[in-house]
Amino acid sequence: MPALREFLTTKQIDITVIKLKTDLQVITPLLDPFAEENVVFNLTEGRAGITGSLLLWANQHNKPAFWLNNHKDRLRFLLPEQHAPLALEDNIDIQGFLAVKGITAEFEYHLAKNAVMQADQALNRALVVLGMKWAKLPESYDTALQSMNRIAQRMHGNRGYIDKYLPRQRELFDDLTSAGLLVWEDEYRFRFIHKTAKRFLCGFWLEYGCFGLLHHELKKREDFQDIALGMRFTRSHDGEDLLNEMDVVLLLNNRLFLIECKSGFRVTENESASKTIYQLDSLADLLGDSCHGILLTRKRTSELAYSRAAERGIGIYGGERITQLADDICTITDGAYL
C-alpha cells in the first residue's frame, strides 16, 4: 500500500484506506465524511455485500462509480448509468508499473508506445537490426557464433584478430563490417568502433535480437506499452536494497514479461539453466500473476530444465523457436496460457 500511495501521489491522486473491523460491519457510516468530497468508486473487485453498499451510497450522494474489464481494457460507468463501455489505453510504462509494487528500475535502452529510434541512436539501431538477423540464423551457424564469443573474449581493448575462418564465420564478420560496427586494419586484425559493439559479440546479440524482434512484431498492437533492454530492478527487503537484472522486459496490456537471454551455449548444463529459472520464478512470484518469466536460449535445453521450468510456469525457447515468441506472448496476453 505505501508504494501504491506514493505512485498515485505522482499522478495527483490521493488514496484513503478505510479499515473494517469485520466483514459484516456496516460501511455506509464510514463513507459519510466523504459526502462533500470529489470521490469515485471502483467496483471492479470486492465482496458482493460491500460493493453493493458502495454502489447504493454512491447513488444516494451522486458519486460516479465504474467497473473495469482489465482484460479488454473497457470501462463501464455504473453511475451515472452508461451502457456503452469506454475504451482505455494502457499508458503506464515499465517503470510506472514497477513503481506501483515498490520497485525502482533503470534500463539501458527502451522504446515506449509510439516511440521510434532517434537519429542519435544510430549505434543502438545497428545493433538491434543485426541482432534480429543473427537471432533468426539456423543452427548451422551455431559453431561460428560460439567462436565469435571466444574471439571477443581474447581481444585487447577494442582490437582483435582472426587467424583462420570457420565455416560461415566470414559471413558474420561481413555483417559487422556492413553495419559499420567493425573496421579492418589489415587482412587479419580489426577494431570495433565502440565498446558496446564488442560486447555485442560476446553474446549480447541475442538480447538485441530479442528486443528488436518483439518490438517489431508487437508495436502494432493497441495494447503495446513499453519494451526495455538491460533492465535493473532495485527493491527493499528487510532494510536492504536488493538488485536484480533482466535482459529484456516487455509490458503488454499491463502484463509484464521478463526475458533472460542465454547465448553462451552453456544453457544445456542443468546448473546454469536451473539458476536462471529460479531467478525468473522469484521475480515473477514477487510481481504477481500479471508477470511471466521466459528463458530464451540459442540451443535447446535438457528435459530436466524443461520440467523445472514447467513446474514454475516459466517458458523456454531454444534453438530457432525465437520466431514463435511474439505469437506466444500474444496468446498469453489475449487470455490463454501455453
From TrEMBL:
<dbReference type="InterPro" id="IPR011335">
    <property type="entry name" value="Restrct_endonuc-II-like"/>
</dbReference>
<dbReference type="Pfam" id="PF09002">
    <property type="entry name" value="Card1_endonuc"/>
</dbReference>
<feature type="domain" description="Card1 endonuclease">
    <location>
        <begin position="195"/>
        <end position="328"/>
    </location>
</feature>
<dbReference type="GO" id="GO:0003676">
    <property type="term" value="F:nucleic acid binding"/>
</dbReference>
<dbReference type="InterPro" id="IPR011856">
    <property type="entry name" value="tRNA_endonuc-like_dom_sf"/>
</dbReference>
<protein>
    <recommendedName>
        <fullName>Card1 endonuclease domain-containing protein</fullName>
    </recommendedName>
</protein>
<dbReference type="InterPro" id="IPR015093">
    <property type="entry name" value="Card1_endonucl_dom"/>
</dbReference>
